[in-house]
C-alpha cells in the first residue's frame, strides 16, 4: 500500500475591574455567555473568558512568558495597521506548489486572528475593525477551494478563521450581524464541505487538522451536529496516529482506511518495524508534521474542554509520550537505528504550548523535555499555516504557579 502523495509541500467578555483599570480601558457591555439553542459557551474556540482575562492581566503586569510573546506579536507583519487582505474567489492549491492565493488565504487568516488578539489585550477598537475588514473581504468573494491540497488548505485557514471570528463576534459589538452571518456562511459552504474528503489513507496530520477546523467552526456556527461529528472523528483518528505499547505489536489502523494488515500498517508508518511509546505515524517522515498533528489535536481538545467535553482524558498518555519522545530527540538525544534508521528529521515547530498548557498546567504532569523545548522556542510566533502566538495565549511559567499567579494555569490549584 502506498502512502498518499497528496501531502503538504512546504502550519459576556467579563473582564475584572482590576484588569480593566490596569489597562486603562473600560469593559464592553456583556453579551450572553452562551447560546441557549446549542449550549455552546462563547467565546469558546481555543480561548474563553478566563483565558482572555488571564492573558490581559499578564501583559498588563509585564509577566513572562506573555510579555515577550505579546511584543513579538505586536511587532509582526500581521499586526501592521496598514495590513491589506488579498481575497480570492477560488483558492486553487495543487500539491507541491505554493500558489499566491493559498499563501494569501493563510496569511490573511493569521492577520485577522492577530488583530483579534490585539483587540482582546488592548481593547482598542481599531484592531477589531482591522480583523473585521480582513474577514469581510474574504466572505464577500470566496466561493471554493480546488486542486489536490484543497482540503488541507481549507483546514489550515478554516481553523484560524474560526478562532479570529469567535473572538471578534463575542467581544466586539461593531461587527454587523449580517456581515458576521455572511462570514459564517462562507465557513459552512467553502470550508466544511472540504473536510468530508476521505483521508483515512492520507498522512494523519490531514485528518487531525481537518478535525480541528471542523470542531472550531462548529462552535462558531453554533452547530451541534458539526461539533459532534468532529468529536467522533477525533476519537477515531487520534489513537491511530500516536502509538502506545498497549495498542499491540503494531499501531492501530485508521478507521476506514486500506491499511489493516500488520505489513500494510508498517508501510503506512514509513516502513517502521519497531514501535515505542510516543512514536507517531509521521515520525519517520519528519518531526514537522508530527508537530502539526500535535498542535491540531491539542487545539481540538482544548476547544472541546472549554465546551465541557473531555477529549484530553482518553489520549492523555499518548500525548504525553509523544511530546516527550519527540522533544527529547529534537533537543539532541541520539535515536537508535531501529527507529527511523537512527536519522530523524528534526524539524518540529512552535507546536507544544497548548498541549503543555493542559498536561503540565492543569494536570501537573512532568514533561521535562517538552518544557525545555518549548522554552527554547519561546516566544513562539507562527508557522504561517495555522499555529499562531501560542506562547501568548497558552504559555505558562514552568515549575508551577504560586500565590495568585495563575498565568497559563488558571485551572490548576495554586498553593
Automatic annotation (TrEMBL):
The keyword Lyase applies. InterPro entries: Alginate_lyase_dom, Chondroitin_lyas. GO terms for cellular component: periplasmic space. Residues 1-26 form the signal peptide. One of its GO terms (molecular function) is lyase activity. Keywords: Lyase, Signal. Residues 96-237 form the Alginate lyase domain. This is Alginate lyase. It comes from Streptomyces indicus.
Amino acid at each position: 500500500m502506498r502512502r498518499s502523495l497528496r501531502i503538504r509541500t512546504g502550519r459576556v467578555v467579563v473582564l475584572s475591574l482590576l484588569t480593566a483599570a490596569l489597562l486603562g480601558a473600560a469593559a464592553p457591555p456583556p453579551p450572553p455567555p452562551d447560546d441557549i439553542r446549542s449550549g455552546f459557551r462563547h467565546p469558546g474556540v481555543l480561548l474563553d473568558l478566563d483565558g482572555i482575562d488571564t492573558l490581559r492581566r499578564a501583559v498588563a503586569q509585564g509577566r513572562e512568558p506573555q510579555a515577550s510573546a505579546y511584543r513579538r506579536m505586536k511587532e509582526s507583519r500581521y499586526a501592521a495597521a496598514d495590513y491589506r487582505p488579498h481575497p480570492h474567489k477560488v483558492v486553487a492549491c495543487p500539491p507541491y506548489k505554493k500558489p499566491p492565493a493559498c499563501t494569501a488565504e493563510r496569511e490573511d487568516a493569521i492577520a485577522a486572528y492577530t488583530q483579534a488578539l490585539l483587540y482582546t489585550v488592548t481593547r482598542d477598537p481599531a484592531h477589531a475593525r482591522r480583523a473585521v475588514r480582513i474577514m469581510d473581504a474574504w466572505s464577500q468573494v470566496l466561493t471554493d477551494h480546488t486542486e489536490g491540497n484543497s482540503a488541507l488548505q481549507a483546514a489550515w485557514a478554516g481553523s484560524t478563521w474560526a478562532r479570529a471570528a469567535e473572538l471578534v463576534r463575542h467581544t466586539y459589538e461593531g461587527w454587523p450581524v449580517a456581515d458576521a452571518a455572511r462570514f459564517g456562511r462562507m465557513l459552512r459552504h467553502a470550508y466544511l464541505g472540504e473536510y468530508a474528503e476521505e483521508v483515512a489513507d492520507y498522512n494523519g496530520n490531514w485528518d487531525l487538522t481537518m478535525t480541528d477546523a471542523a470542531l472550531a467552526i462548529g462552535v462558531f456556527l453554533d452547530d451541534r451536529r458539526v461539533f459532534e461529528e468532529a468529536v467522533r472523528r477525533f476519537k477515531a483518528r487520534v489513537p491511530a496516529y500516536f502509538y502506545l505499547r498497549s495498542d499491540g505489536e503494531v499501531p492501530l489502523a485508521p478507521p476506514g482506511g486500506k491499511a489493516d494488515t500488520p505489513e500494510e500498517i508498517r508501510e503506512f508508518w514509513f516502513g517502521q518495524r519497531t514501535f515505542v511509546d510516543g512514536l507517531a505515524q509521521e515520525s519517520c517522515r519528519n518531526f514537522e508534521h508530527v508537530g502539526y498533528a500535535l498542535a491540531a489535536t491539542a487545539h481540538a481538545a482544548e476547544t472541546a474542554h472549554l465546551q465541557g467535553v473531555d477529549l484530553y482524558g482518553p489520549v492523555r498518555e499518548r500525548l504525553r509520550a509523544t511530546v516527550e519522545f519527540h522533544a527529547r530527540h529534537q533537543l539532541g538525544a541520539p535515536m537508535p537505528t531501529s527507529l527511523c534508521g537512527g536519522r530523524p528529521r528534526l524539524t518540529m515547530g512552535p507546536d507544544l504550548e497548548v498541549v503543555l498548557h493542559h498536561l503540565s498546567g492543569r494536570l501537573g504532569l512532568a514533561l521535562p523535555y517538552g518544557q525545555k523545548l518549548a522554552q527554547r522556542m519561546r516566544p513562539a510566533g507562527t508557522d504561517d499555516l495555522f499555529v499562531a502566538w501560542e506562547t501568548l495565549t497558552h504559555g505558562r511559567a514552568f515549575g508551577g504557579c504560586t500565590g495568585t499567579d495563575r498565568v497559563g494555569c488558571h485551572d490548576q490549584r495554586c498553593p
